[in-house]
């Protein structure tokens, strides 16, 4: 048994504690601390494990938002305490779980983390246990290498492939009508798959056309084939953006249905691509497209497996705000390699499209003047311009992001996924495993002030480093 303190610091006449450690059947009264009428505490002997708990303050259920919080299967927010061996992850984070020493090579990294009240406080990052990391990586590695790609393929559903000689305008409308964000290309002359067409291609096409004309027309988009566009893109990418494409064309990367999920995830990450086609070929015959594999599909498969092991994979229950994970605003973390990029509703669509490609990000948080999240603009939102050929009568630098968002209803799904820095790593992984979700935006719960962003790639790199 481990002596585990529970502390309520926010006043009240009577404070009780209840949790999963007693089946929520008993309320344990906390004792006022001597010298402070606002602080109540009780030390309880608990066996090692992960427990949910909550306070009852003057008859009302409360959580301490300064500590680890999670949402249970019924949608109820509870605090979390992790008890391991003779040590525990204290529910009193500020007082017990951290220290402020910065001397020595192995000390914890100091971060600037905002409090839920909006004020800033400096707290060190959580000391990650090598044992916890090793256990999680071992479980994850075993699962990814033992699971095959065919387990991602749905029992029913259609797949679509476009001929590389189809005109660009038709491809644009097909992908809009079918709700596709990426589609493989087929070279009939050589009887082989020839590449992928993505939302990024159409963003670059519109930027290229707009750079040559104040307003482009159907003829601009319809008089070139996908094949000719791909050739132009390779030669003139730098003319439109300040970024370069590789000097040599990258061969199409694909996977077979019997390959491991580990191989698929590794290929996607190493080649900085969004998805790869899953094909089946027998004795060198014409390959048959089976599925499009992406990181979110791999992560969903992983989450289903890890859900049954949360009891001892304690790292998954740690709050993301205390992990070296994601991109954060400067006031929360001072030493980020990449800045947290945002735009305002008054910025132009041209600003958004250029930033998406130059920064190589999937979506941009849109904030108000106070830095509070109001929406996002994503690469896939470009397909909304196919409706009624809207791209033919807009000016990219005159259309605001607000106006662009208002016409994206038909291409949006659950586009805006958010969490707080107190949400667990596993909760964020679940959000990122949803279709079309590639990043989760971290906000302050009450104000929606944006604090950071965690992407699919962030999670995979963190779990595999």
What this model shows, in words?
With 465 residues, the protein is of the alpha+beta class. 26% of the residues lie in helices and 25% in strands. It contains 12 helices and 24 strands. It has helices spanning 93-97, 130-146, 168-178, 199-212, 218-222, 226-240, 261-270, 295-306, 349-358, 401-406, 425-432, 456-464, and strands at 2-8, 15-19, 28-29, 31-32, 40-46, 49-57, 60-62, 69-71, 77-84, 87-89, 110-114, 120-124, 162-163, 182-187, 192-198, 275-280, 288-294, 327-328, 343-344, 363-367, 373-378, 418-419, 439-443, 450-455. The strands form 7 sheets. Strands 2, 3, 6, 7, 8, 9 and 10 form a 7-stranded antiparallel beta sheet that branches. It has a 4-stranded mixed beta sheet with strand order 18-24-23-22. The chain has a 3-stranded antiparallel beta sheet with strand order 1-5-4, with no helix packed on it. Helix 3 links the parallel strand 13 and strand 14. Helix 4 (199-212) crosses helix 9. The two termini are 34 Å apart.
Distance between the termini: 34 Å
Q: Largest sheet, if any?
A: 7 strands, antiparallel
- Our count of helices gives 12
Mean pLDDT: 79
* Overall SS class: alpha+beta
Shape: globular
What brief labels describe this structure?
single chain; 465 residues; alpha+beta; seven-stranded antiparallel β-sheet; four-stranded mixed β-sheet; 12 helices; 24 strands
List the helices and strands and how they pair.
Elements: E1 2-8, E2 15-19, E3 28-29, E4 31-32, E5 40-46, E6 49-57, E7 60-62, E8 69-71, E9 77-84, E10 87-89, H1 93-97, E11 110-114, E12 120-124, H2 130-146, E13 162-163, H3 168-178, E14 182-187, E15 192-198, H4 199-212, H5 218-222, H6 226-240, H7 261-270, E16 275-280, E17 288-294, H8 295-306, E18 327-328, E19 343-344, H9 349-358, E20 363-367, E21 373-378, H10 401-406, E22 418-419, H11 425-432, E23 439-443, E24 450-455, H12 456-464
Parallel strand pairs: 13-14, 19-20, 22-23
Antiparallel strand pairs: 1-5, 2-3, 2-6, 4-5, 6-7, 6-9, 8-9, 9-10, 11-12, 14-15, 16-17, 18-24, 20-21, 23-24
Helix pairs in contact: 4-6, 4-9, 8-11
